[in-house]
Amino acid sequence: MAMLEVVDLCANYGAIKAIKGLSFTVGKGEIVTLVGANGAGKSTTLNTIAGLVTAASGRVVYNGTNITNAPTAAIVRGGITLAPEGRQVFPRMSVQANLEMGAHTVSKKDMQEGLERNYELFPVLKERSKQLAGTLSGGEQQMLAVARALMAKPRLLLLDEPSLGLAPLIVNEVFELIKQINKLGATILLVEQNARQALSISDRGYVLETGRTVLTDTGSNLARNPKVIASYLGG
Question: What region, left, alpha or beta, does residue 165 occupy, with left being phi > 0 and alpha being psi -120 to 50 degrees?
Answer without folding.
Answer: left
